[in-house]
Amino acid sequence: MSVLVFVEGAGGEIKKSSLEAVGYASALAKKINTQAVALVIGNYSDDQISSLGKFGASKVLSCKNDKLSQPLPMPYASAIAEAAKKENADTIILSRSSVVDAIASRLALKLGAGIVTNVVDLPDLSSGFKVKKSIYTGKAFAFYDLTSAKKVITISKNAYSAVEGSGSATVEAFDPQLSDSDFKVQIKETQKATGDVLLTEADIVVSGGRGLKGPENWNLVIDLAKALGAATGCSKPVSDLDWRPHHEHVGQTGVKVSPNLYIALGISGAIQHLAGVNSSKVIVVVNKDPEAPFFKAADYGIVGDVFEVVPKLIEAAKAL
Ligand code: FAD
């Protein structure tokens, strides 16, 4: 028996959130005296693939099948299900993403597995298999008992730290048997809407609020984002006022982000905005009002005027 973990990449790199999933799978495997097996689909370098051992995988199944060059939910679910069967894995771990959301449900259906999404901690195995799940955009937790023999778990980004150790993994080529029915839906063409860093996947997000006073001042947000290789976001009123496009609006009614670093410039920190940012690892707030609610959620706060503070931040970021 083993715990299988699906490893996802973006832009030729294995995602940090997938490394977190490998760490999670490895910790779970230790709890049940078994090993974690990672499944990597895609043309990653040998170094990238074998490095998964450092994050806790004992074995890596490397699948380099051209038919899987696009992350289509059906064939990916089939490939993961076949790997689970091969490795005798009852529990399959995936890190949440828009792609994984589509894969995980299909995978659970294929395996006849119970599924819990958005899990934020290792399961409590003292009586059964109890998992803690984040609900209401991170405002509360729910505890689920997974009673099915097969289990699919998607974990939230930043819920479990990826710790690099000195372990090593054996690497094995894996070529799943895929059928035509797996490819009934195919992507014929993709068009890049923007060259900017994708907000939902960004490691760093620089976000602006009404404190920026108007779209003519957005160069402050953009320049800081560029200097840090970050994506740009905004509060809802900013997109309502058409200062920024709606797809940048972060919060309860907008995009939910989970970066390592969220920098909020001139945003008050209303609960509806916080609902979209509270799974960020580190939050930095710049606001001239020391009573702004965002400071309560911040790891670091600067009480100051964005028009004075941000140019200094840009200068410092450029010098990094
Ligand atoms: P403001 O509330 O106007 O705050 C501006 C901040 O900038 C203030 O804290 C001020 O001190 C500071 N400031 C001003 N000038 C400067 C300066 N020169 N330097 C530094 N700081 C300065 N909001 C969202 O963002 N996302 C959502 O998804 C969302 N969903 C909502 C859903 C519902 C049902 C409702 C009712 C509201 C929702 N809102 C959402 C709106 C939310 O309640 C707030 O009104 C909004 O987040 C406030 O945006 P803001 O902080 O940019 O503006």
Model description:
Its cofactor is FAD. The protein has 320 residues and is α/β, with parallel strands linked by helices. The strands form four sheets. A seven-stranded parallel β-sheet has the order 7-10-6-1-4-5-11, sandwiched between helices. Helix 7 links the parallel strand 14 and strand 15. Helix 3 packs across helix 4 and helix 5 packs parallel to helix 9. It starts with a strand and ends with a helix. The chain binds flavin-adenine dinucleotide. Flavin-adenine dinucleotide (FAD) binds next to helix 6, helix 7, strand 15 and helix 9. The site of flavin-adenine dinucleotide has 28 residues, from helix 6, helix 7, strand 15 and helix 9.
Task: Catalogue the unreliable spans.
Answer: none
Q: State the helical fraction.
A: 25-40%
Report the total helices: 9
> What is the rounded Rg?
21 Å
The total count of strands amounts to 16
Biggest beta sheet summary:
7 strands, parallel
Distance between the termini: 47 Å
**What class do helices, strands and sheet pairing give?**
alpha/beta
Q: Report the bound ligands by name, code or SMILES.
A: flavin-adenine dinucleotide
Please list the strands of the largest sheet in the order they lie side by side: 7-10-6-1-4-5-11
Q: What number is the mean pLDDT?
A: 94
Protein name: Electron transfer flavoprotein alpha/beta-subunit N-terminal domain-containing protein
GO molecular function, one term: electron transfer activity
Organism: Sporocytophaga myxococcoides
Pfam families: ETF (PF01012), ETF_alpha (PF00766)
